[in-house]
Write a structure and sequence with these properties.
Number of helices: 9
Order of helices and strands: EHEEHEHHHEEEEEHHHH
Distance between the termini: 37 Å
Strand content: 15-25%
Oligomer: single chain
Helix content: 40-55%
Largest sheet: 9 strands, mixed
Length: about 290
Amino acid sequence: MKFTRAARQKAKLRLALTGPSGSGKTYSALLLAKGIGGNIACIDTERGSASLYEHIVPFDVLDLPPPYAPERYIKAIKAAEEAGYNVLIIDSITHEWSGVGGCLELVDEIARAKYKGNSWSAWNDVTPRHRALLDTILQSSMHVIVTMRSKTETAQVEENGRKKVAKLGMKAEQRDGFEYEMTVVLDITHDGHFATASKDRTGLFTDQDPRPITEETGQSLLAWLESGADAPDMKAILHGIATAATEESLKGHFSAAWQMLDGANRDKAKEAYDKRKSELTQGATA
């Protein structure tokens, strides 16, 4: 184990927009994408609603009908990556959780089919599938903006001796903890379409004042993302591992990569290492 000096690296955006129906999530996502720039793609599960805003910025759309299993989202994200898009909007990610064929329905189906109605056991099958989608988003080479429907939570409270119903905030329709993985989470209100950050790793929204989302918001986010240090060149690192001529050279490439990388990139380097080591071993015994 070795500690190294912390340094923020250049990164891709992982942003979630939450809000009730009609709050402007799709419109705001397209404005953000316009500010970031580049080729824009949209996975639309909202029956073509994104295309209503084609005047905002040119973008390509993939209409994704049900069932909304995690694997179908993953396939669509991979297709966008392979097509070379710079920004991907997923409108909305809520359907993967509570839509037709989404995780909640999958749990019920699997519980009936395999576990005699025991939904707790069924989650052992569905959770890894949901996690795979989240990992695909986090590891994507694109800037990713997701929208999530939300419901207003209320509770009965007592004020000056009288009981009344108070709004406690909005709860996104996704699995609890989904928002923890995002760089920024912006909650959009129906009145005025103003956004407030419920999570912000950038420091751009620390004043907490509600504000409209504009093209300039996307530009500011991009400037922050690009202000970090250059990230390691994964293509070059993986190529060096994959083409190592000897086991000693392979160990050297992998050791250097391990020091530079973290998280999912370490996993990719380890996978490449194991594959090349197997090839070298088989070559030596042939």
